Amino acid sequence: MSQDKRTGLIHHPYVPPAGFEAVAPGVHKASTVVFPNVAALQARNWRSKTGYTYGLHGTPTTFTLEERIATLEGGLQTLLVPSGLAAITLVDMALLKQGDEVLIPDNAYGPSKELARNELAGWGITHRFYDPMDARGLAALIGPQTKLLWLEAAGSVTMEFPDLPALVKLARERGVKVALDNTWGAGIAFNPFDLTPGGDALGVDVSVQALTKYPSGGGDVLMGAVTTRDEALHLILKFCHMRMGWGVGGNDVELVLRSLPSLALRYEAQDAASRTLAAWWSQRREVVQVLHPALPGSPGHECWQRLCTRAAGLFSVVFNERYSPEQVYAFIDALRIFKIGYSWAGPVSLAVPYNLKGMRHEPAYSGTLVRFSVGLEAVGDLIHDCQQALHALGP
Ligand SMILES: *Cc1c(COP(=O)(O)O)cnc(C)c1O
């Protein structure tokens, strides 16, 4: 009996020839992965990238991106998660247990602090926020319960650049694991697993990135990565990742793979433009401080200089207190090229106001702060845009 056409559409005899080679990696999508026989199904290996078990746990496409991100970070293993925030969550969940304490910089990515304040606290995991510019103060905070130290360089919004090697060394000496939110550095500005090139190898234990930012570069994908150099630590994270059921879709991975080759070029271009714009702002009397780690006088500039030659296209300005928040908002509303919105490292320049009261334990600035993310527009147009919008600031 000949086979029904409906079955033939699914179990078709045609097999395309093997050996197709193209510039872009293939996009594989699956929940179900099929096995040639029961023995192969029973022998499936979850641990390493030697085969496939289930779409959630890896496809040729996700394995390819994982390997490329591991190379970018200078690490050995990478796990992909659905967002940058999920990457932070994975590290916290895998490495912290009831009774443990985590130390988070006061200038960390805000939702990371919220995660500790709300979810972690509910599971009996305590946290303390520390001043990343005060290594001695941090040393005094580390106790027997401290199991994890978070780092971020530069810090969110206020852009302080900490002495990363000193902070890592301090944690190392006390047996505390170190995780870095490396979204800003993106694997370009410095190597998180080798912070003292030429010296004694000193690096973080885990580096996370929001691939949403530079690796995507398009403002259209959400994804995160967790990278390690230590196999045992990787497996702890990997098993937590599997149990949590965090996977990423093949189409999203495709977008990041497509953007990755231009990552370094975009980073350089946005770095150059943001330094030009930051220098322009530092001449303006409306602002009292420009916060950009590559700018002399910005907090942690010397630490940035010791470790990096490049900086992300991100900086903040603090307006003189004589301008009310509403006046600063009017300036932002008057911008034409800069759009108003969160995230960064995409093609479109962005501006967001912040009030540091409530965001920081001891805010260093009392004026309204505006964080700029520089896109890929011509920098002359961006300067002109800021200049014309300043008229809306008022007297
Ligand atoms: C954006 C960002 C995140 C979170 O990334 P999402 O993909 O938006 O969840 C984490 N850390 C830093 C420093 C970020 O800028």
From TrEMBL:
Q: Does the keyword Transferase apply?
A: yes
Give the highest taxon in the source lineage.
Bacteria
Q: Does the keyword Nucleus apply?
A: no
Question: What InterPro entries is this protein classified in?
Answer: Cys/Met-Metab_PyrdxlP-dep_enz, Cys_b_lyase_bac, PyrdxlP-dep_Trfase, PyrdxlP-dep_Trfase_major, PyrdxlP-dep_Trfase_small
Positions in coiled-coil regions: none
Q: Which UniProt keywords apply?
A: Lyase, Pyridoxal phosphate, Transferase
Listed under catalytic activity are: L,L-cystathionine + H2O = L-homocysteine + pyruvate + NH4(+)
The molecular function terms of the Gene Ontology recorded here are: transferase activity
List cofactor names only. pyridoxal 5'-phosphate
Q: Which PANTHER family match?
A: CYSTATHIONINE BETA-LYASE-RELATED (PTHR43500)
Q: Which family does it belong to?
A: Belongs to the trans-sulfuration enzymes family.
Task: Tell me what this protein is called.
Answer: PLP-dependent transferase
Organism this protein belongs to: Piscinibacter gummiphilus
